[in-house]
Each structure stands twice: as C-alpha cells, then as structure tokens.
C-alpha cells in the first residue's frame, strides 16, 4: 500500500510496559500492606519493613526480600488471584532498593546488620518496656 505516493508507514503506537504498570501498582500495595489472600502470611513481614524503613532501610529491604522468598514458597506458580502482579511489583521494588540500601549498610554482612538492628531495638524498646513494668510494680 502507498500513502501519497510513498510506502505505507503505520503510526507508532505508545505501549504500556509491564514493569511500569507493576511498579505503580506495587507501590500502593506496599503502602497499604494489601496482599493477595493466598499470601496473607507475609503481611506482618511487610508491615515490619514499612515500620523500620526510616530508621534502617537495609533491614526493611531484607524484610521485603524474605517476604518475596516466602511468597514464592507459598505460591510458586503464582496461580492465586493477583499473586503474579504482586510478586512482580515486589521484585521490581527489591531491584530498585538493593544498591542504595547496600551502600548504607553499617555492618559488613546482612546477617550482622540484622543482629545490630535487633540489639539496638532490644535495648531501646524492649528494655525500656521492661523497666516501665518493673517501676509500675514497685
């Protein structure tokens, strides 16, 4: 076919790329901690990740990474409703956050980073609660 004497050239169409869509959907899922019903067991892990993100982004990343691994164990074929989209969005977020949080890591390994965070958390919050209970008993 020709158009005005030249070969037919279709107009380029703007396509939506899947990762862009998954990224946008994923952000709202993590903010509200809404997970597919077949992955409800990972909701507390994501809640912790959201709570510690401001104080320790690397530990938040590691929580999300663990949630992703657990989601894959719970539904390895991603056959549940919304699971494939959720796992894709979570994976996209993990890929985006890995390098920045890795450079902010205070310890030499992720295991030590978690131990250090736990020690700090235990000292600051758990011991303070225990002291408050002890003082209330007196």
TrEMBL record:
Name used for this protein in its record: Callose synthase 3
